[in-house]
């Protein structure tokens, strides 16, 4: 069913079908996955997440909180089963799904847009799925959040397995905050001999999660705000390159992949232009706070940029994001 008569400029809505919910992940075909598997030559695997109770310090004082583990009502906490030698533990977690290493689903970020040309913008998401119809929840919390469409489980069902391609932004620009736009990104990719093909999952190494791990409880807002590269998402040519490149997903080891400002004096248009471009217009999942250092170092030492990447989120119906413990194999 087509959900719009006008689609946003720069969007691909409808190109993968009127009911499509996986966007550019459609580009990871069996052929592309075989190309990814062909990158496995050594059999070495790299975990791509930080522990889910990181970052710590001032990050943990923010609106998203680290996981809290508790025993279940079963009381199975070191319980020796009567008459048996077996010991059982059982727990549950209060888990903020976008606290740590994560995927954003397309239900994470939408926009006001006049889908039908009536002059009445509505809150909508990728491919025209609508708030209150397909994605439930309200700002007061009186309607429980639930993504009936575009939830993270739709992404989980694709397995998120394909060819990862690493761009080492930290090597090119260092560890101070730098906004990397189109020209600089293309230059860095040329320097590092990185080629991106349709279906590839673009990974951006900035070094931020390593800094966060090392800072531990001493992590400050200032350190987060002044460290490591982000994409300059106000650069329209960068957004156009993302469209043209055919990347199926983008993952970075920084906070939001892009620069952003909530100061209306500084920002015009979207607060998060890359989120709007990728999640709302193009159906490109965004990964944040990944851990890419060890993989990046290995790739650099071995003159490689490509690897097999397997990174499905939790298959949690209705959720708009998910922790992810991705694995790269080289
Ligand atoms: C920000 O917090 C800015 O990004 P996200 O909500 O995608 O984590």
TrEMBL record:
Gene3D superfamilies (UniProt xref): Putative cyclase (3.50.30.50)
Residues of the signal peptide: none
Listed InterPro entries: KFase/CYL, KFase_sf
PANTHER family, per database record: CYCLASE, PTHR34861
Protein name: Cyclase family protein
Naturally occurring in which organism (per UniProt): Amycolatopsis silviterrae
